[in-house]
Specification:
Layout (H helix, E strand, L loop, with lengths): L6 E7 L2 E7 L10 E5 L4 E12 L2 E8 L9 E5 L4 E6 L6 H6 L8 E4 L3 E7 L5 E7 L5 E4 L1 E2 L4 E7 L6 E8 L2 E5 L14 E2 L25 E4 L1 H4 L13 H4 L4 H6 L3 H7 L3 E4 L40 H17 L3 E6 L11 H5 L28 H18 L3 E4 L7 H14 L4 E4 L26 E3 L1 H7 L19 H7 L15 E3 L9 H8 L5 H17 L3 E5 L19 H4 L3 H6 L1 H16 L8 H7 E6 L3 E7 L4 E7 L5 E14 L7 E7 L3 E7 L2
Parallel strand pairs: 1-7, 17-18, 17-24, 18-19, 19-20, 20-21, 21-22, 22-23, 23-24
Antiparallel strand pairs: 1-2, 2-5, 3-4, 3-6, 4-5, 6-7, 8-9, 9-13, 10-11, 10-14, 12-13, 14-15, 14-16, 25-26, 26-27, 27-30, 28-29, 28-30
Length: about 700
């Protein structure tokens, strides 16, 4: 943020300094400016353009002597008033990138029993120190700079478990920060710990069965905290990594936590953010609730989910066990990564080291706000891209996770997603990469955004289909708007398109790029939306409509995505955004699940149906074009035909309150009837109101 003080100066290029003077400060007038560094050397400035910047005037000055990056500069005006000259947009220039191309392959803390090496990259700093924190006081060790702007020091002795921060001298200020390259992080990201993954006793990795194709996945979104927050659900340490996979006699009897997830038959569990976030106090985790879309550290794990948040090792070991426990249960793990913005830019470790480099900004110092959080990550500079790729790969290499879901992916550039996908697939050929491909209004050029509009440039990256969501769920911005399963039959032609993964209408070129959903952590749950959209209908009918909605998600071409609790009509008490509400609104309510268990059984039947029938999981765009046909009955009932070399199926979706006569024009065997009225071998049948019937054709 600029124009906060009377006089400000920003070094925005090797030849450009922007000076801001408040209009009430000497009437915003100065006849001259110059810079002085910490050695007393003068750098003259020439005033060019003077721009009206609201409360300030902005003087665009050219630099008449070389700027030596890393020195501290002070601006002087003609009144001998001074201001710190801050390195800003200069870090975005090609000249800066060429001068300070990094040379080290590894940064952060590199531990060995005999010595530990510390490395950071911050060309703009005038000094960097490692500060060891202990009861006897700070121990300060200066670091040395090389020509690439890298700072390093080797400290002798066995330092394992020592706590430290970096003390950085930059832009006339001295700040301390955790080590952004070290996953051993302390309470509330207050410090880092000297340690090594090799020194921990992590669980042995369990191999999972690789998927043949991405459309074999059935993704189930869940929160670490929500799954075990309800009282008396059998968990020793509720709301933690450990609780998420704890199984005991109580959890099995009550069907809670992992004991419940396993019975559903899904293939992947997508965990809401588990990387360190800033919106919960790790020391008192029950005082606050937050989903965690407020990243504080991209290489550290969230301490509030740990049994012992004071111990940097604990959260690592506990999360590693969680992943392997899931693998033992036949489930793969997908992580929700929030690489588009951070909780607090000025306290974010990378920004402390080199302000502005890792965030999207223009040459005038304005920050991009496509994320609506006041700061957007800039994924294009070399060290930013490298950091994000390394952070992602670390999660695979150490914890053995199986997929990434990217929050507000459209803020990033698509080449980053392609690089992450490429490196991930080297490690696991069936690794999943998908995210929110909304075309966010960021400073990234439209043609480079990782948005749906550029899906053809991301061959291994999937996108949440808002087209599917809006047609099947109804408009999320208007609670009363019905989706097709709720009775909005006039969108039947749109339904035909989204059931074919929007390939026939040219929105996507491959079905594995399409993640079909009607409910996620955002917005009202499907049940709460239909409570308004289907107002006046009895609960029994709304249950049928919820089942019909889920059936369309499960049987459409593409990848089905289910929000935890959708299968039993989860409610958040009619609240549309519960990101910081209490456990009362967010916890998984197993008592409600028991009341709605008939819906759960319907969901499990749909999961089995998708798994057992390959024509619901066509793997290529050509297979969809060859294997999917849609028609309708009376312009209201969808007839959805799917085929491949194994089968030919016909599915009927009836959102009306009418009983519809259906003629198969051949002989078929009923695979599924949500109304439980049609069985066996048939040639015609009566399709019940608000129901789905799936038939396998014999000829």
């Amino acid at each position: 943020m600029r124009t906060k003080d009377n006089l400000e100066a920003f070094i925005d290029g090797y030849n450009t300094v922007h000076v801001y003077m408040q209009k009430g400060f000497y009437d915003g007038i100065s006849r001259s400016f110059h810079l002085k560094d910490q050695f007393g050397e003068i750098v003259p400035l020439s005033i060019g353009e003077k721009v009206d910047a609201g409360t300030h005037y902005c003087y665009v000055c050219t630099v008449d002597a070389p700027i030596k990056v890393g020195r501290e500069y002070v601006l002087y005006d003609s009144h001998c008033r001074t201001a710190k000259a801050k390195y800003s947009h200069i870090v975005k220039t090609k000249q800066f990138a060429d001068h300070f191309s990094p040379s080290y392959k590894q940064y952060g803390c590199i531990y060995k029993p005999a010595e530990t090496t510390f490395r950071v990259w911050t060309p703009v700093a005038s000094a960097v120190e490692v500060v060891f924190k202990d009861k006897e006081g700070d121990r300060i060790v200066p670091m040395q700079r090389n020509s690439k702007g890298e700072w390093s020091v080797v400290v002798k002795g066995d330092l394992r478990h020592a706590m430290y921060v970096y003390r950085v001298h930059v832009n006339g200020e001295i700040k301390e920060t955790y080590d952004p390259y070290n996953l051993f992080t302390g309470l509330n990201t207050g410090f880092s710990q000297v340690n090594s993954i090799e020194a921990l006793k992590l669980p042995e990795k369990v191999e999972t069965v690789p998927m043949k194709q991405q459309t074999d996945a059935i993704v189930y979104e869940a929160s670490i905290r929500d799954m075990s927050a309800q009282k008396d659900s059998g968990f020793t340490y509720p709301k933690t990594f450990a609780a998420f996979t704890e199984e005991n006699e109580t959890t099995r009897i009550k069907r809670t936590g992992l004991s419940y997830i396993k019975e559903l038959g899904v293939t992947h569990v997508q965990l809401m953010p588990v990387l360190d976030f800033g919106s919960v106090d790790e020391e008192y985790p029950t005082l606050y609730y937050n989903w965690g879309y407020d990243p504080a550290h991209y290489m550290g794990l969230e301490g509030s989910y740990s049994i012992d948040p004071f111990d940097p090792e604990s959260r690592i070991v506990e999360f590693a066990r969680l992943v392997q426990d899931m693998h033992k249960s036949g489930l793969k793990v997908t992580l929700d990564l929030v690489f588009n913005h951070v909780w607090d830019r000025e306290r974010f470790g990378l920004d402390v080291l080199i302000p502005d480099y890792y965030f999207l900004m223009d040459s005038w110092g304005n920050y991009s706000n496509g994320s609506m959080c006041g700061n957007d990550i800039d994924s294009r500079p070399e060290m930013s891209r490298r950091y994000l790729v390394d952070a992602a790969m670390q999660l695979i290499d150490i914890f053995d996770v199986d997929g990434f879901r990217f929050d507000l992916m459209g803020v990033l550039d698509y080449t980053l997603l392609n690089e992450i996908a490429k490196e991930a697939r080297k490690r696991k050929p069936d690794f999943m990469i998908y995210g929110e491909g909304w075309d966010m209004n960021s400073f990234v050029p439209h043609e480079l955004r990782a948005s749906q509009n550029n899906q053809m440039n991301m061959p291994q990256v999937g996108h949440f289909s808002d087209r599917f969501r809006n047609v099947i769920r109804g408009d999320s911005s208007f609670l009363g708007d019905k989706g097709y399963p709720a009775g909005k039959t006039e969108v039947i032609n749109d339904v035909k398109q989204v059931m074919a993964a929007s390939i026939l209408e040219g929105r996507f070129d491959q079905p594995y790029k399409v993640v079909n959903y009607v409910e996620c952590h955002d917005n009202h749950t499907m049940w709460d939306k239909n409570r308004k959209a289907c107002e006046g209908q009895p609960r029994s009918e709304r249950m049928k409509r919820q089942n019909l909605t889920t059936a369309m998600v499960m049987l459409a071409q593409g990848i089905p995505f289910i929000h935890c609790g959708q299968e039993f009509g989860r409610t958040k008490q009619n609240l549309g955004n519960t990101y910081d509400k209490s456990d009362h609104f967010n916890m998984v309510d197993y008592h409600r699940r028991d009341e709605m268990d008939m819906m759960v059984e319907e969901f499990k039947a749909l999961v089995r149906l998708r798994k057992e029938h390959s024509s619901f999981r066509l793997g290529t765009g050509q297979a969809v074009r060859d294997g999917v046909e849609t028609s309708d009955i009376n312009g209201k009932v969808l007839v959805y035909q799917t085929k491949d070399e194994n089968e030919r199926l016909v599915s009927f979706f009836n959102p009306t309150n009418e009983t519809i006569h259906c003629d198969l024009h051949g002989c078929g065997i009923v695979l599924h009837d949500s109304a439980h009225r049609t069985f066996g071998e048939i040639r015609a049948f009566e399709l019940q109101p608000v129901s789905v019937v799936v038939v396998s054709m014999k000829d």
